[in-house]
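User: Hey, my collaborator sent me this sequence without any context and asked if I could get a structure. I don't really work with proteins. Can you help?
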Amino acid sequence: MYRDNALLPRLGMLAAGLTVLALLAACGGGNGSASAGGVDRSAITEGLASGEYEINLDGAVSRLGSYEGERGPYDFAPASGGTNANGPYRVRVRTQTQFGDDQRVAYLLIVLPAGTEAGRHELTALRDAGDDDAHAMFRATGQAWNFARDVSGHIDIAEIGDVLTAAYAVEMADGDGNTVRLDGRMKGIPFQPQAETDTRITIDGEEEHFEGGSIRAAYGELRIGPTRSAIGVTLPESVEPGTYDLAAGFDGDGLRVSLYGASGRIDELDGTITFEETGNTFSGSFEFTASGDHAVDAKGVFEGLEL
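Assistant: No problem. I've predicted the 3D structure and written it out in structure-token form, which is a compact way to encode the shape of the chain:
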């Protein structure tokens, strides 16, 4: 999934961490009855092909059928603020439901803490969860209703890394005292890595560090960092592998740089950004210095961008 490249030293270490997780899972994830952490892998996977799942629902909400929309019935990816290598991770399973007269798609969300390994993990509510706790909720699209109170249950993980193999059983309540019970299992659900960066920018002597998933491309611009303090780089209409000059404002010959965390003018800017194509995504690096109302120095790497 990742590569160790001198151009991407930090992300190389993150990738290595994910590989280690995969190896740990593989060590206990064979075809025997005992798996890593004492979890019975065969009981979880019996009758399931890789990529298949089951979900059962009982209580105040009824299950009408499988979700067949464009987003897919499940995802396994870094949770908000997580990294590909270390997590935290989110597991989401979507299904068609009915609650009273309301019919809509809902999803079970399980968030696994950073560094999660194979084994049994007790589930609690988000409001009660510490950094090392897994938590769960069951929520309708559009947040029409939400079961996130009095959460009890567990998730048994037989394999976690490039794929997730697990079973769960959980009960929870909404604010009106209605309860639901969910159980299910999944085999070989593929990990969906996020685009990641490791960037440092210094403005007038104050440094900010952007890492993990704080990078995105939208509306013709690459943004690195939180929205209000991001570095913005305009993108060419078609991104080709290579090195591009960077410029301040609209008058330069390079790709325009905007600094959303700095008010005032940037009169001069010198630097470059490099894009490398890796399968269906882009990785690369950038570096620039700028002067004007602020003295700026920035340097970073990125990986996994879909442009």
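In plain terms: Confidence is low (pLDDT under 50) at residues 1-35. You can pass these tokens on to your collaborator as they are.
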